[in-house]
Amino acid sequence: MLHVSLPKKLKKYVQGLTLSLLGTLTLSTSIAPTLSHAQDYPDHAVKWLVPYGPGGGTDIVARIVTQNMSTNLKQPFVVENRGGGNTIIATQALSKSKPDGYTAMQTADQLAANTSLYKELPYVANQDFEFVSSLVKTPLVMLVRKDLPANNMQELIAYIKQNDKKVTFGSWGIGSMNHLTMEALAGRINATPLHVPYQGAALAINALLGGFVDILFTDLGSALPQVQADKVKPIAVSTATRIAQLPNLPTIAESGFPGFDLYSYQGVVLPKGTPVAIVNKLAAAIKVALENPTVANDLISRGFIPVANTPAEFKAQFIKSEKDFADIIKSRNITLEK
Question: What are phi and psi of 295, to 5 degrees?
Fold first, then answer.
């Protein structure tokens, strides 16, 4: 065998080049399966966790959207309701799931609110998940009981200031979006109306109809039938812009509270470490679903506004809402723990 003696400098160069080529080869072979996996994704059923029971707004949106995604991606997206613990049970389950894209969770604003409502959580919401896309935003309609002596925001604020702690407002539960929205408004007028939490939207709206509470912020799907039946009085909408279904109803912002813009939202998250290619593919599939006219019209008819965005945009939206909710929760001294 012929042996060639190389100069020392050339020998070091050859050794370095060899190591570099080996490193490139190793990196390319490690990336290849991930890219291949993303291209084939999904090749079997995807579990779609919903942190609430069946029949609620989050569940309805999940079933409308995933039906379209199942058709487009040719694999079943199986909705699994895992309610309880103010969404913590499902969220913790997601955090422990394999980061392969086959377990997703449809979350809501409650995930962001819980950061400030609880002293300890089994996860860090803005760090332990991959944010995929927003799904919908839900304006909240401010309703008052039919016989309350107020027909607009100015009259209602005067009534609240005059009666303050005698005034009651309902919600879907402590720390829920409609609770925080009313607290934000009360903070703007330095008032302390009495909060009466209920277990869900149906009980809260029935309490308003029965005269057990004076005020209720609720989603359009719950509000519209009662407004159309003239059983309650609508005062304003919580978003910065008016809503098409009630075009004459002013926003809170234009009723004397500039910048007021609060709403419920839903989106999708995956376990931390899910490959970026899979995150992006799922985000693209959500965008396609929400842009489908049948899907969009179905959601809009139920009071949801379809809003798809990128993973980066959704994470930014989530972090902003965490801060906004934290400000409300701290300033109004709201807590779920004694």
Answer: -65, -50
